[in-house]
Amino acid sequence: MPASAAFPLARASAAPPLELKARAAAAAVQASDASAATGEAADAAKKAELRKAAESFEAIFLRQMIGAMRSATTGDTLLGSSASDQFRDMMDARVADDMADKHSFGIAEMVLKQFGVDKP
Fold first, then answer.
1. Fewest Cβ atoms nearer than 10 Å: which of 5, 56, 70, 84?
2. 62, 112 Cβ separation under 8 angstroms
3. What would the mean pLDDT of 2-24 be, rounded to a whole number?
4. CB–CB of 85/56 below 8 Å?
5. How far is the CA of 45 from the CAs of 51, 61, 85, 118, in angstroms?
């Protein structure tokens, strides 16, 4: 009895060596493309996260700067109260956020350059 008759599945499932190599190469290319795509997506996500952190840093820096400038003044003694101080601080924070959103100071760009991320 021939071997192929005794083991019919062995004959049907056996692929030529070149076909196996081609399948393995195609699978490797697909895996490298998938890992490159995920690597690029992860890199883009990391850059976006770093950009957001740099912009937040600029806003915090500007808040501190405005607060220091505000404390250097003599203040408003006519309507001076803790409530007006609180609302003035809220206004200063909002002004600092708006200034940071306009990117006019360039602090965030300098931080991004320090980390090797260029402006888009």
1. 5
2. no
3. 58
4. no
5. 10, 24, 39, 14
Tokens coding 36: 């490159």
Dist. CA 115–CA 92, nearest whole Å? 29
Q: How far apart are CA 59 and CA 67, in angstroms?
A: 12
Amino acid identity of 35? S
Please give the Cα distance from 65 to 47 (Å, whole number): 27
SS (H, E, C) 44-103: HHHHHHHHHHHHHHHHHHHHHHHHHHHHHCCCCCCCCCHHHHHHHHHHHHHHHHHHHHCC
pLDDT of residue 4: 56
Neighbour count for residue 39 (Cβ, 10 Å) = 11
**The two three-digit tokens of residue 33, written as one number:** 């493309």
Per-residue model confidence as pLDDT tens digits over 62-102: 999 998 988 887 766 666 677 888 888 899 899 999 998 88
Question: Rounded to whole angstroms, how far apart are CA atoms 37 and 68?
Answer: 47
Which DSSP letter does residue 115 get? T
